[in-house]
């Protein structure tokens, strides 16, 4: 199926990224010649129009051959969609700020897989749009797999989905101690008073432990409704925070050190305090795997996601790989105003 923009003088064409059964789209120049600095602006102008027309349905747009790999150009491209780029507050993974709203992607070792997730769905404020730019494509692997969060929601067993929806989720984080991200990195500050104010404004319960470390708890949504489309989406990171996400030997070692599951670096339970069974988590992970699609990165690619409609991941890789990220359009959960 070809969704080429109809007029012959159009600069780009739109085609399915994976196949007719998937919503995600690929946008490429109609002219096979590499775009020049003089043509980028025209491509970007069309890209903005295409995004406004297609992103709410497609959930994911891959811009290919529209610009060279350049972090400054990428920042300009992402900002050209009309919203200010936002910071990475209340972080859960290590990243490096490149500057002016651009960050490196999660800096985990190359051999590790990062499972599917919607960015910052473990909290009550998240970006609605997110961009990934491939500055250096890996030698092998290193894809950023994606999945339709509407499809995930529909495939989750109704009994599990209803329990998650009704109860919500409480995430516990125990920072530092060499086991997880230091609180100074997670909040981007060493000022405890600033952290206290942030937590109070975002319904996060925080406490300082005797050894000077920080523990936070926040009760959040398990599913969400897209503010523009009205679609219900699976929107949480329970499968990442649940103890069953840890390899058995790692879990046993950590429990021997910290003493209980809720003292682990990360933990999740239902919002009423009851534990989530491992069978439910196994089912959720199976659905996520079934919905996953991936494409190989090419240097210069820009992937634009509606963060509520599309989850993303990272595959292991070899060779150098540099992906930078930008985010915009913060969404505040209705729980913050209740």
UniProtKB/TrEMBL annotation:
GO terms for MF: dioxygenase activity
Protein name in the entry: TauD/TfdA family dioxygenase
Cofactor: Fe(2+)
Lineage, broadest ranks: Bacteria, Pseudomonadati, Pseudomonadota, Alphaproteobacteria, Sphingomonadales
PANTHER family attached to this UniProt entry: GAMMA-BUTYROBETAINE HYDROXYLASE-RELATED, TAUD_TFDA-LIKE DOMAIN-CONTAINING PROTEIN
Keywords from the named record: Antibiotic biosynthesis, Dioxygenase, Oxidoreductase
Organism superkingdom: Bacteria
Signal peptide: none
InterPro entries assigned: AlphaKG_dependent_hydroxylases, TauD-like_sf, TauD/TfdA-like
Gene3D superfamilies for this protein: Clavaminate synthase-like
Organism: Novosphingobium beihaiensis
Transmembrane regions: none
Coiled coil feature spans: none
Keyword Oxidoreductase: yes
Domain TauD/TfdA-like: 48-326
